[in-house]
Amino acid sequence: MSVFFNLTSNPLTLFSTTSRLETKPPQFAMTTKGVSNPSEPTQWDSAAAQYNDAVGRSSRIGATRLIAMADSLSPLSAADAHAIDLGAGTGSLTHQLASSFPAVPILATDISPGMLEQLMALNVRGSKITTQVADMAAPVGGEAAEGAFSHVFSTMAIQVLPEPASEGTLAQWSRLLKPDGVIAIAIWDFDEDCGPHAIWNDACRAVDPSYVPPPQLPPRSWTGCSQLEEGLKVAGFRDVQAEVTHLGFDVGKEGFLRFFWESGNPMTLECRGSFHGDLGKVRTEMERLLDEVYGGGSKIPLSAGLAVGRRPDT
C-alpha cells in the first residue's frame, strides 16, 4: 500500500480517441461517500490493478535508489541476506529487489489482499518472493518472525501512520531485524514540489477561488525527508543516511487523467469528494494546466525522501 500514490497505488478504462475529442467535457457525479480511509484494505483492493500504470513508475525509480543505499550499508549479496517489504503494494520495490538480487528470499506484506494478488500476478517464475497479509503498524507474526531479516524495506507507505517514531511503529520494525540489520524507507516528499496535488488544487481554484483542498496526509504524519531522517535517529537507528531524490510523475496527459479520474486511488477519491461544484469544469482546467504548464504531462514534479540506517543497539 502506498499512500497518496499506491499514486498509492485501479481498474482504469482507457479513453477512446473519440471521447478525447469531444468538445463538451463529461460531467462527473460529486459525492463525499467515496472519501477514503488510507488504512482501510478495501480502499486499496479497488485500486490495485492499475497501480503500475501511474504510481508504480515513480515508486520504482525511488525503489531502485533505496535498494542501492541499503546495499551500500549492508550487502544484499551476502549469503544470509533475507528481506521483507512492508506495505509492499503491487511490488514496486519487491520486484526491483528480486531482479537485482535473485538469490535473496523476500517476504512482501500488505494490508490489502488485492495488492498482494497483483504483486504475485506480476511475479517472475523462479523468484524467491512470498507474500503475507499484515498490518505494517504491527508486522511481527507468521513468516515475519522477530530477528529474521537482514533488511527491512518500505516504500511510500509509512506516511499513513501517525508519528512512526514516537508511536512505536519503528520499534516494531526494528524487531524484525537481525543484529546490525538495515532499515530502508522511502516516503513521498511533500516538502518539495508535488505536481499531482498542485494540478488538482490549481484546477479547482480556477473554477472556485474559495476551494480549500483536503490535507495531503493524515494528522501527525511525516511530510518529508527531514522528518524521516530525524524519526530514524529518534528511534535509535544508527549510521542513518538520507537524501531527497526527484522521481517525476511524468505519465503524460492521458495517463494523468486516467489516474485522477478513473483509478479509484483513495487520494483522488478524497480530492474529488472535497470539491462541491462542477467537476467537469475542473477536469477541463486540469487538461489546460497539463498542456500549458506541465509539458503535456511530461514534466510533473514529484520527489521522495529516502533513508537507511542500522538496527538500534539493544
Automatic annotation (TrEMBL):
Q: Which GO terms describe its molecular function?
A: methyltransferase activity
**Which residue numbers delimit the Methyltransferase domain?**
84-181
**Regions annotated as coiled coil:** none
Instruction: Give the InterPro entries listed for this entry.
Output: Methyltransf_25, SAM-dependent_MTases_sf
| UniProt entry keywords in alphabetical sequence | Methyltransferase, Transferase
| The keyword Magnesium is assigned to this record | no
Pfam families, A to Z: Methyltransf_25
Q: Its domain of life? A: Eukaryota
Protein name in the entry: S-adenosyl-L-methionine-dependent methyltransferase
